[in-house]
Amino acid sequence: MTAYVFPPPAPPSAPVAGADTRFPLRRVYCIGRNYAAHAIEMGHDPDREPPFFFQKNPDNLDFSGGFPYPAETADVHHEVELAVALGAGGRNISETDALAHVWGYAVALDMTRRDLQAAAKAAGRPWEIGKAFEHSAPMGQLHPVTAVGHPAQGAIRLTVNGVIRQSGDLNQMIWKLPEIIAHLSRFFVLAAGDVILTGTPSGVGPVQRGDVMEAAIDGLAPLTVTVV
What we know:
Layout: E1 13-15, E2 22-24, E3 28-31, H1 36-41, E4 53-56, E5 61-62, E6 66-67, E7 76-78, E8 80-86, H2 95-98, E9 102-109, E10 112-113, H3 114-122, H4 128-131, E11 137-138, E12 143-144, H5 145-148, E13 155-160, E14 163-169, H6 177-187, E15 195-197, E16 205-206, E17 212-217, E18 223-227
Parallel strand pairs: 3-15, 5-11, 6-18
Antiparallel strand pairs: 1-2, 3-4, 7-10, 7-16, 8-9, 8-15, 9-12, 13-14, 13-17, 17-18
């Protein structure tokens, strides 16, 4: 038995729809500016440039239904995204084989301290301070591929207090999921337990304490999160 200097924390995991088992989490990769309209609203050219990624921590994924308003910020934005959970990995995965590595899908939010992210961008620094903070990725239950297939199109939307903020379609992704997996696997060794957040449509904006966010993607269980 391994002896630790202090008891290690429980490994992070995600709930699975209709099951008592849980999905163990390893890494969280996020693709930036993967919807053309969102790239434009953030001041960037929507042309198909090579994809880029940033990371969140696996324990940033939160399944509680609450989002504690974070410290050291006055401008927290919502970003609704399709979360992809891998059941297998590898290096240099081909686009043809990429979807065979997917275990399931869920609705997720990439919450962003936009003011801190903007300051990091201006200084040419990494984004983690704006992206990888505690509870920064609320996420719904995972649905296995065997139940929902591979959603390549369908509405993706988010309301705040019943008012639509974001509305798009999964088919508007600039880089499709097989391309995302193949590209990531050139730079990282992917593995079972990895989660990929696939980008957000336009309409990102701020939330305040007391707001109720409702995120939905056709074919998946919706996600309701209250800012506390």
